Amino acid sequence: LDIVHNFLYLLLPVHTLPKFVIENLHITAKIACYPKALERYSSTQMNRGGRVVIMTNEYNRVGSTLAMAYLIAGEGKSLKEAWATLRRAYLALRPRWEFLDRLAVFEQKVRNLPDPIKIADEDFL
User: Fold this and answer.
1) CB atoms near residue 28 (< 10 Å)
2) Which of 84, 85, 89 is nearest to 124 (CA)?
3) Where are the domains of the chain?
4) DSSP conformational letter for 77
5) CA distance 40 to 43
6) Residue 92 to residues 16, 31, 77, 88: CA-CA distances in angstroms?
7) Burial (0-12, 13-18, 19+ Cβ within 10 Å), 37
8) What is the DSSP string of 17-46?
9) From the CA atom positions of the chain, what is the Rg in Å?
10) Hey, is 99 helix, strand or coil?
11) Which of 42, 48, 60 is nearest to 2 (CA)?
12) Sign of the alpha-carbon dihedral angle for 123, 1, 75, 108
């Protein structure tokens, strides 16, 4: 279980959280990687003072991508800021270039940028 940002956690479903951990962390919601609802649902939970766990089979891929997408859309972070936030929580995280390219296009749409911001190796290592 890794803390991504204030109220957001990542977890592989093969790991189960004992009830006392859920209670101690004050987790109020679990999301099993349904991207369309993630941003709206996570924001609602955050505004209520809740905490959210994103559960995924592909920890380095889908879960981290969804967490970064939430940070971009829900908290207005840039892709680089979202990456830095996730990297602080999970030091072993490595870039998946195909997902970073898609997130750059997502950031362009969300932030209404004329073009996607170029991704450089040194920014994501």
Assistant:
1) 15
2) 84
3) 2-124
4) -
5) 5
6) 21, 22, 21, 10
7) exposed
8) PPHHHHHHHT--EEE-S-HHHHHHHHHHHH
9) 14
10) helix
11) 60
12) positive
pLDDT tens-digit map of 88-101:
877 767 667 778 88
Instruction: Pick the closest to residue 56 from 44, 47, 45, 69 (CA basis).
Output: 69
**pTM greater than the 0.70 cutoff:** no
25 is written with which tokens?
């962390």
* 70 φψ region: left (φ > 0), alpha (ψ -120 to 50), beta (else): alpha
What is the Cα–Cα distance from 50 to 108, expressed in whole angstroms?
A: 29
| pLDDT per residue as tens digits for the range 32-83 | 555 555 556 666 666 676 666 666 655 456 677 878 888 888 888 999 998 8
Arithmetic mean of pLDDT, 112-116: 92
Whether the CB-CB separation of 83 and 121 falls below 8 Å is answered with no
The answer to whether 102 and 64 are in contact (CB under 8 A) is no
> What distance in Å separates the CA atoms of residue 124 and residue 100, rounded to the nearest whole number?
9
- Cα 69–chain centre separation: 6
Task: Tell which CATH architecture fits domain 2-124.
Answer: Alpha-Beta Complex (3.90)
